[in-house]
Every structure is written in structure tokens, then in C-alpha cells.
Amino acid sequence: MASLSIRNVRKVYPNGAEILKGINLEIEDGQFLILVGGSGCGKSTLLNMIAGLETVSDGSIFIGDRCVNDVPPKSRDIAMVFQSYALYPTMTVRENISFGLGIRKVPKEEQKKIVDRVAETLQMTHLLDRKPALLSGGQRQRVAMGRAIARNPSLFLFDEPLSNLDAKLRVEMRAEIKLMHQRLGTTIVYVTHDQIEAMTLGDKIAVMKDGVVQQFGSPQEIYDNPDNIFVAGFIGSPSMNFLHGKLTRHESGMAFSLEHQGMVSLLPLPDKFPASLMPEGVIERDIILGIRPEHITDAISARRSEIAGGYHPTEVDCTVEMTEPTGPDTLVFSWFNKIRATCRTHPRAAAMPGEHMRLAFDLSKAVLFDPVTEQRL
Amino acid sequence: MGADSTQLRVGRIAIYVLLVFCALYYLAPLYVMLSTSLKSLDEIRSGNLLDIPLHPSIAAWSKAWGEACTGVQCQGLAPYFWNSMKMAVPAVLISTLIGSLNGYVLAHWRFRGSEVIFTSLMVGCFIPFQVVILPMARLLGLMHIANTTTGLIFVHIVYGVAFTTLFFRNYYVTVPEELVKAARIDGAGFFFIYSRIILPLSLPIFMVCFIWQFTQIWNDFLFGVVFGGTDAQPVTVALNNLVNTSTGVTEYNVNMAAAVIAALPTLGLYLVAGKYFVRGLTAGAVKG
């Protein structure tokens, strides 16, 4: 087991393309790090560099307290699970799992013991003599994990391991990976483009874009306090709403004034946004308010949670454009100043499309962004 | 429905008739060669080209193999046939092996300039034989392997590597890159990955290269006649000499038998490994 420290790491290709522009990440022994971002953000490149499959152009990578920049992959004490599983097609499952052990000169007896133990933990003893071509996607995924576990490495690397599975299996395997982490307690670096995997699995998430870490923190931190509009929009499903309006003084505090159906609605901001803390020149200017769908809800649900000690919400009348029932909630879509907002309401409280509905805004969890820099205020 | 299926059946029959006709058309020369080789000279002179031999005899075959004159010598094709074998087998094996290693490197161990090297190798596929004759003659002379089987093997390897590299490289790029990465993390090195992961996947493409190279090398005439000298002449050159040696009557039956003998090895290889040829050219690597 080992901690992982990535210090000022850059990757520049010979043609001058800068894929990673100075990455700094630090996780402790046993933590589960998620690298998440859209395609081309450099997350897989970074993982390959941790694995030693790509060279580090600048900066350094430490596994434990050892700088591994010039250490070949096999000596880094890592195991990797690939998106395509990368099982050796001509070998049986048993040979696949013991391949790396054989190279490490683990005695045959010992190899057999390890393979049997791994197969038992992953419930695939009956698959040991099959070739990968005869396995289903989920089984291949399991073998790939078994091959990684058998090595008993100090660091696991996962490269989008669930992307090739269907939706149901993905949820199952996700839980299995999490259980494996809880059981083994090995440090994991996990690359994904799926924000749900990121939220559910990670101890720490690094949200990446264009070779830069946009934000690094625990899933809840990133969900509640996104640093910028990209992170706010990327994490969470359905996405956070970004309402365009003005920041104004209101009574003793501040309010967000929103043009809506020809009128101006004032949404008073809670005390955590005091005027004194606002940067110069922001007041009475355009601003973006980020608010998650679950914080715009029907008035009845809002009052109920207010009684339970919640924040006093502001209610606004709106016209419903469309609804999407999901079962536990119904998503209601309505327009606010040319932005279509998603609101999560109680299924029985949701109005029909075209009807009016009173929506309650809970601004206690809202965040404000500068419309120019798109950074958090 | 009934009309439709009748139409369909008529279409089928038309297709089969056409296919059988084409097959017969292409097989006709082979039939003529085989039947003529089994006839006596008298029968050839008196009968029709397409007649079935009345008194089949393999006398012409044994003459072509062991006694027919190729120029001044009269030992038949046998020594040249073995010359060809001694040349073709090592040349095929070595050029295929080198091509396989080249392809492995160019597909999975790319380095700066590897694409340039690949492109230059491709150019090698388009260089006509005639262009390299003079420089090659000089080179073989300097290496003291002119007019030897070794020299011919060398020439064919040099010429064949461009093709085999192309075949193997294009086959190996379909092998997922992640397989090699996984093996590297497992601790396997360059040759270990090649022998344990890549080679076991390569049977179809090896067959393609064997057939392609063997056909090219066995059937080559130009290099054989230029660089073979007198001792290392391959069977193609000997066949030419045998047919062109005119002392008295032209022995069509012997000529035909000799031609079939010279063509037999490539024919045999196609029959044995032909199915891999199509499969290897069309199919990608095994999906993990």
C-alpha cells in the first residue's frame, strides 16, 4: 500500500501539444482517487504516466516516498485494469491471472493458491479453465480485476473499467469495486468520464478539463462547493441550473434579482452571502446563480422541509414547459430569463405542461459565479 | 409467392451455370497440361488437344524429373527443384520472421520516426525487380555470395521484408494496444510479450506470409537467372532451359510434365493453407 503524490506534472508531445499543464494531486495511503473529465482532458494520459506507460515531461510522480519517474511499469508495484479488459486471448482465465505471477517467479504452488483464492473472492472458480472469448462482458471484467488483485499491488489503476458494460451490470460492478476497495484497503486511481461513478466511488475527485485540474476535493465538497461553472455543471445529474440575473442589495442583505415572465423576482440570499464579503463592483451587476435541481422544488415539499428546520425558501410562480417523471421525483422544466431550469418536485405536486406552478427556491445551497471568468465568487 | 420462388430458383441456376463455366474455363489449361503429360508423343501428334489419354503413362514425368536435358546437362529438373527448395524455404522463413518482428515494433513499440521507416519500407514494395539488379550484383560480389543459393536467399529476404512487414504491421495494429500495456505492467519484456502474447495470435497472418512469400520466391525467374549462376539455378530457370532446348522433336509431354512439377509446391501450399490465406487477409486479430 502506498500514498500517491503528483507534483507539477506536465506532458508535452514532440509535436508541441501540451496535454497536461502542471498537475498537482496528493492522496493518502488507502484512498480512492477519481480522475474525471470529458474526452481529451488528459485523464487517461495522467493514468498512463502513473503506470509508467508514458513518460513524464516535467514534474514528478511519487508512489509512497519513491519518485517513480524513471521506474519501469513492472517495478512500480502497480496493477491496472483496462477499459477493454486486455485479457490475453490465447490463455485461459487461470493463465491470465497467473501470467504476471509467473514472470515474478512466484513458485507454481503459490501461484495456484493465489489464483484459487482470487477466483473464490470474485466467485469465478468455475471460469478458470475457459478462454476469454467464452466469457460475457461482466465475467471478463471480473477476470481483469482478479488479475489485478492477484498481484497484490500497492496501487490499483483503473482506466474506465465499466464503460463497456451495459447499464445494469455497470451498477453491479461499481458496487463490487467499492466493496473490493473496502476489503483490501489498497490505494486506487480510477479514471472515468461518468460523474455518477466519480461521486459514488471516490474518496477524492479531481475534475479535469484541457489538461488542468479544475477542482480537487471530496465528492461532497465538489458537489456542494464547485469552484467554477465547469465543475458545477459536470458533477451532478441532472446538471446544476445556471440562472442569469443581477445581484442587488435587499433589506439588510443581498438578493438575486431574476427577470421572469416580464416581472422581476427577488430571491433573497441567505446570510452566508453578506454584502461585506462580496468583491468590489459585483453588486448591481450581472451574475450567474448556480442552483441544483433539488433546491428548486414544489411549494408544498419546500414548506415541509422548512418545518423540519430548513431554510425559508422563496416562492415564484412559473409556467411548466415539460415534465419528466423519474419515479421518486418528477423533473419540471421551466424558463427563467432565457435559461431552462430543471426542478425536482414531488410527483403529485408537479403541474402539467403549460400549467402554472409555484416553485420554491432554496438558496441556502446556491452558489454565485462571475459571468466573465466563470469562477466562483 | 410461387412465382417469386420460381424466379429465385431460375436466378440461382443461372448463377451456378455461370460459375461452373468460369471454373471449367480456368481449369482447362491445367487439364490440357495434365492429359498431355500422360500421353505418348504419337498420341499427341495424332489426337486432339482435349482428348483423354488412351494409354496413360508416367514416362514423360520420370523423364522430366530425372533425364531431360536443360542445356548441355541432362539430369532433368530434380537438382534444380532441390535448388529451389534450398532457396525458398529459408528465404520464406527468415523474411517472414523478420517481417513479424518489424510489424510488432511498428505497431506496438512506436518510436520517433517509426512512421517514416514504415513508409520507406512501403516504397520497397513498389521497386521493380529490374531496378535493383545491378546494385545487387555488385553487393553480392562484395559479400562473396554471388552465384550461390545463399546469395539468392539474401536477395529474396531483402526483397520480401517490405511485403512481410506490411502484412504483419497491418495485422498487429488490430491487436489491442492495451494487451501490450497489460503485459508490460505484468512485467513482461519486449521478446516475452512477442513470444507469449503476439505470436500465439499470429497463425493466420503467418500463413498469409508463407503463401505469399513462397509463391513469390518459388516463381521468381529474373533473380534466379541473373544471380543463380550455374550451380544455384532454381527450377523456373531450369524449366525455361528445358523447354527451349531443341534437339530434334519438341517433347510436349515432357515439357508439360516439367511445368506441372515446377508448379506443384505452390499448388500444394495453397491446398494445405489456402483457407488461412482468405481468413488472414480478411479477419482481424482475436478480440479479447
Structure explained in plain terms:
Chain A has helices at residues 43-51, 93-103, 108-121, 137-150, 167-184, 195-201, 219-224, 229-234, 299-307; strands spanning 4-12, 18-27, 32-37, 58-63, 66-67, 78-81, 155-159, 187-192, 204-209, 212-217, 241-250, 253-260, 263-268, 286-291, 296-298, 314-319, 322-325, 330-336, 339-345, 356-361, 367-369. With 377 residues, chain A is of the alpha+beta class. In chain A, the strands form 5 sheets. Chain A has a 6-stranded mixed beta sheet, sandwiched between helices. In chain A, strands 13-12-11-14-21 form a 5-stranded antiparallel beta sheet. In chain A, 40% of the residues are buried. In chain B, α3 (59-66) packs across α13, α4 runs parallel beside α7 (149-172) and α10 packs antiparallel against α13. In chain B, 74% of the residues lie in helices and 0% in strands. Chain B is mainly α and 288 residues long. Chain B is built from 13 helices and no strands. Chain B has helices at residues 2-38, 41-46, 59-66, 78-108, 114-124, 129-142, 149-172, 177-186, 190-198, 203-219, 222-227, 235-244, 252-282. The A-B interface holds A 14, 48, 51-53, 72-74, 78-80, 82-90, 99-100, 103-104, 132-133, 140, 147, 151 and B 112, 176, 178-179, 181-188, 192, 196-197, 200-201, 285-288.
Q: Averaging pLDDT over every residue of chain B, what do you get? A: 88
Number of domains of chain A: 2
The greatest interface between two protein chains, and residues involved on each side, is: A-B, 29 and 21 residues
Intertermini distance of chain B: 45 Å
Give the CATH topology of the largest domain in chain B. MetI-like fold
What is the name of the CATH superfamily of the largest domain in chain B? MetI-like
State the share of residues found in helices of chain B, binned by percent.
over 70%
Q: Give the radius of gyration of chain B.
A: 24 Å
Count of helical regions of chain A: 9
Main beta sheet strand tally, sense and closure of chain B: none
Shape of chain B: flat
- The helix content of chain A is 10-25%
Distance between the termini of chain A: 39 Å
- The CATH architecture of the largest domain in chain A can be named as 3-Layer(aba) Sandwich
The best one-word shape of chain A is: elongated
User: What structural class is derived from the secondary structure elements of chain A?
Assistant: alpha+beta
Low-confidence spans of chain B: 284-288
> What percent of residues of chain B are in strands?
under 5%
CATH class of the largest domain in chain B: Mainly Alpha
